[in-house]
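Worked example 3 (structure in, sequence out).
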């Protein structure tokens, strides 16, 4: 009985602790949403106003009157295309590194991780000059190229670990039955690695969607993403907190939906991606 009571107490303490931590991290998001539906006079009220008549003026003014829906569409288009291309390339690259032996394979895989140790701002000036010479600044193609290049190393590394965990005998049996190497990849490996591919795609979507540095440098008025457009509400003398919060909520909502819907696949994919040869 004492052990059962002790276990119940420990579980209760753990649940309370996790609840407090969850509230701590979710409260800024809740406060941001509250700010987005408040009247301007309620935003800076002291003490804070908890009960008020909500308004959607910040959303209608920002996305409809000021045309911020265009930036939202641009963000979706660029992110989806870049993630799709990066996932396809990473699948082929990860399959090759997990199934074939070639000189310099270990060094190449290690370089994928070293790539992320270099601060992104270090690439800013060279990329700006290259894009200027190629005349692809302020174009969707320019953003798609840089987003694809940024996500391929991470996707390849995670998928490599996942493909390594799949027995090669299954592919050998398929090829004995007349299946080609590509057919074995499509019919055997990809169905078995679907959780890992889904997790990798979701994680790359989140990182690409939230990217601010490169769109701020390489994009312009024609291809501005929503994360960059949000900075327009910061002026010299004031910050338009209501409209900025409305845009921030629009940035967060797709990410929250993805995490809530596919959190199980993210965990499975990350755990499997930790497997190494």
């Amino acid at each position: 009985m004492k052990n059962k009571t002790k276990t119940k107490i420990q579980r209760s303490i753990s649940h309370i602790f996790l609840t407090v931590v969850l509230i701590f991290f979710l409260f800024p998001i809740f406060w941001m949403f509250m700010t987005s539906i408040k009247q301007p006079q309620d935003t800076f009220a002291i003490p804070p106003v908890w009960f008020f008549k909500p308004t959607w003026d910040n959303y209608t003014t920002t996305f409809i009157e000021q045309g911020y829906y265009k930036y939202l569409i641009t963000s979706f288009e660029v992110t989806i295309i870049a993630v799709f291309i990066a996932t396809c390339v990473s699948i082929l690259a990860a399959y090759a590194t997990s199934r074939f032996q070639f000189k310099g394979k270990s060094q190449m895989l290690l370089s994928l991780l070293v790539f992320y140790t270099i601060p992104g701002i270090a690439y800013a000036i060279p990329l700006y000059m290259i894009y200027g010479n190629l005349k692809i600044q302020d174009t969707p193609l320019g953003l798609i190229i840089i987003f694809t290049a940024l996500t391929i190393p991470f996707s390849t590394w995670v998928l490599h670990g996942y493909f390594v965990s799949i027995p090669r005998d299954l592919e050998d049996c398929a090829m004995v039955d007349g299946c080609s190497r590509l057919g074995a990849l499509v019919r055997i490996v990809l169905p078995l690695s679907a959780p890992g591919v889904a997790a990798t795609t979701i994680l790359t979507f989140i990182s690409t969607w939230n990217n601010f540095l490169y769109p701020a440098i390489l994009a312009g008025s024609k291809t501005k993403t929503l994360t960059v457009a949000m900075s327009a509400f910061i002026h010299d003398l004031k910050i338009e907190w209501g409209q900025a919060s409305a845009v921030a909520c629009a940035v967060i909502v797709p990410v929250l939906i993805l995490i809530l819907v596919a959190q199980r696949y993210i965990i499975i994919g990350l755990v499997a991606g930790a497997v190494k040869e």
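Notes: DSSP finds 13 helices and no strands in the chain. The CA atoms of residues 63 and 173 lie 55 Å apart.
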